[in-house]
Specification:
Number of domains of chain A: 1
Helix content of chain B: 55-70%
CATH class of chain B: Mainly Alpha
InterPro entries (chain A): TAT_signal
CATH class of chain A: Mainly Alpha
Radius of gyration of chain A: 22 Å
Protein name (chain A): DUF4439 domain-containing protein
Distance between the termini of chain A: 74 Å
Strand content of chain B: under 5%
Radius of gyration of chain B: 15 Å
Structural class of chain B: mainly alpha
CATH architecture of chain A: Up-down Bundle
CATH architecture of chain B: Up-down Bundle
Largest sheet of chain B: none
Oligomer: heterodimer
Chain lengths: 131, 137
């Protein structure tokens, strides 16, 4: 196929540019911590809305929008979750969500430690004012 | 300076500001200010213990901080809102620390600062919702 050294080099360059290098393709996978944070943000938003904490729900929607943007091109379907029974249950859910994000802040291998820490702190503040 | 040095400096400044501002407050804001001042002192003590455990010298506080003129309760409330926002912003910056122990301490302090900011805003009738506590605008 390549009869000269120059032809070989050009051919290699063309094949590399075309992505035909024998390397396996990489499928973009969703970051597990981002996905978990998104699911929790959506669930907390639904719970806060159900109990009339609309400003707090908006915080969670803001978190969810940011997480959705970072997860693109992956799209995570939104699940319907049961509403918390009362404010104490919502505060407990906020505390659990804060702990989840705090753990992600400490263990993530991505560049999102600050983001997870912000989400953890915001949820902790929600729990404190709801309680 | 490390993130913890900067955070300790913010806690020193907060304690000073509460000492100057709380006397101008009454009712719920006064009670909350006294509670939050006590929490800043507790956080300062945790940080001083951290330095002692590491065998390091903690940075000392300044002899005084510029808190401006506090003429009335409104000025005191504004000052303490600014102080709590500043403390949260300072600890937030430490989340990028690569040392796990430093990041954990900054995360703990940042979460406590976000809670304090929300409680203070609630006490003075400000909106408490904040998706990104301490994030620069």
């Amino acid at each position: 196929m390549f009869t000269t050294r120059r032809g070989l080099l050009i051919g290699a360059a063309v094949l590399t540019a075309a992505g035909c290098t024998g390397q396996t393709g990489q499928i973009t996978t969703a970051d597990a911590d981002l996905t978990a944070a998104l699911r929790t943000a959506r669930a907390l938003a639904q719970g806060a809305e159900a109990l009339g904490y609309n400003e707090i729900a908006e915080d969670h929607r803001t978190h969810a929008a940011t997480l959705e943007r970072l997860l693109r091109p992956n799209a995570i379907a939104e699940d319907e979750t049961a509403a918390p029974a009362d404010a104490a249950a919502l505060a407990d859910a906020e505390t659990a969500g804060s702990a989840e994000a705090a753990e992600a802040c400490m263990t993530t291998e991505s560049d999102y430690a600050v983001l997870f820490g912000e989400i953890a702190a915001s949820r902790a503040a929600h729990a404190a004012v709801i309680a | 300076m490390t993130a913890i040095d900067t955070g300790l400096a913010a806690e020193y400044a907060a304690i000073y500001a509460y000492g100057a501002a709380a006397v101008h407050l009454d009712g719920d804001p006064r009670s909350q200010a006294e509670a939050l001042e006590s929490e800043h002192r507790s956080r300062r003590d945790v940080l001083l213990d951290h330095y002692a455990a590491a065998g390091a010298d903690a940075p000392p506080p300044e002899s005084a901080y510029d808190v401006g003129v506090i003429g009335d309760a409104a000025a005191a409330q504004d000052l303490l809102t600014t102080v709590e926002e500043s403390v949260a912003a300072t600890w937030r910056a430490g989340l990028a620390a690569t040392d796990p122990d430093e990041r954990q301490l900054c995360l703990d302090m940042y979460s406590a600062a976000a809670v304090a900011l929300a409680r203070w805003r609630l006490a003075v009738g400000q909106p408490v919702a904040d998706p990104w506590p301490g994030r620069p605008e």
